[in-house]
Amino acid sequence: MISEEQVRHVANLARLGLTDEEISRMGGQLDAILDSIEKIRELDLEGVPPTANPLDLTNVLRPDEPRGELSPETALSTAPDPVDNLFAVPRID
Amino acid sequence: MLELTASALAQKIRDREISAREAAETANHRVEEVEYRVNAFLTPTPYVALERAGRIDERLQNEGIQPWEGVPIAIKDVLSTRGVRTTCGSKILEDFTPIYDASALVNFGEDLVMVGKANMDEFAMGSSTENSAYGPTRNPWDPDRVPGGSSGGSAAAVAAGEGWWALGTDTGGSVRQPAALCGIVGLKPTYGRVSRYGLIAFGSSLDCIGPMTRDVRDAALLLQAIAGHDPLDSTTANAEVPDYLADLEGGVSGLRVGVVKELMDERIDAGVREVVERVVGELEAAGAEVGEASLPHAYYALEAYYIIAPAEISSNLARFDGVRYGLREPADGVHEMYRETREKGFGDEAKRRIMLGTYALSSGYYDAYYAQAQKVRTRMIGDFREALSSYDVLISPTSPSVAFEIGAKTDDPLAMYLQDICAVPASLAGIPAISVPGGLSEGLPVGVQLMSDHFTEPLLLRAARAAEEVADFEFSPRP
Fold it and tell me: Is B427 a residue of the active site?
């Protein structure tokens, strides 16, 4: 059973604002989902290697060479608050 | 013109029987005619289509065009399109206009005749397109039913004839399941076969861009257009792209077909199983060797998927923080800005999966959930290796049911997740899988899923073409 405290903790880790109503609804839904997922813990997979990528690729390298890059103006054209060729944000607290 | 396949229309454009401009005009007209009933598009782009079609006609007079060019296409709104709004079905990207094109679209060619950006579940999370922040798409077969998801807009556009084909994306069935529910073909290629650069990420170890088409030949042609290695996506395969059309009519004689028993049990509606059994019977009559295949870990695939996918989502959606693009809610401090931007910008399912993934990755739970799911994934790959040593292709239903009614599952996330039970095993293993219309149940289309080994799309497409041939189904645009 996931507590309201845990839901608030996880929401904070995810930097996700949730209303009190969402916190209580989310708690119930996460419980139901986690209950069903619990099933995979019954498998004994001791010593089985984990798979992160189905193709088993490792360390794909390419030469570090400059290519046609975006101009600062273009890169900032989607920014909510561009200032002096930088992304401006509110005070860091 | 509306009844032609994409391949047939492409041929007529190259033979100059139909101009690309006429094709674009026909698609635009069809969008105007049926869109109020279907809602397949978030952003129709009639002028983009006409302008690029004009350039195709010019190039046809001069240097020539590729065999797939000039045929109007719908693009899922998760693929970045330079200069054309790309929302991912989310409020957080309501006013976002990308500054580059996805590599798959670049591969297709710069004069991509795009009729519009197609509706989808928010950030591709869902199986009904009801999680779009801009309202649901309706199934062209029945406006009270969902088109499936998450590429529901792309599927509905093809089924309704709003363009001749479409691109969707498939993380855990999002190309195949809507294709099944709308009576079209949907192909998820091998992971790494098509570049993900410019595909706004959901589950980076699972995401695949795939063709959604009127028939199997069209799917082969569209894959030919988009596949290939990309230095901008280090997970793409550095392997030659074969000719996907060469073996298409090879038939089934001598082909070994395994029916996956774990995906033919009582969790699948009887009417759906009947259609699959009928197609399998016809393939056997046509000369295929048919037997029963087993994927024991398929019983754990959905659970493993619903840990791995949300874990990757919670990481990938961290980039939507109000700093570099998209929505920003004003606030005094940066943390409050993050929280309020994400609270306002994300819908329910996105929030649910961010929470689930963050929980599964958090200290104390990582080994129990995420690491265990990654081990199940290893076992799933082993199951496929075993089954595919005895069979060339595996067969199952694509989806456990036909299209369901709008609203039927929106209050029950678990019931919605069950839509993916047949699709996620291939996603976890990264193998190619295709859904082909097999016939009708309750008057609605049923998809038959075929799966094969990594990078064996030519074989898969040949088997799918044979299944399409024996199936009791004929494509025609609806309504």
Answer: no
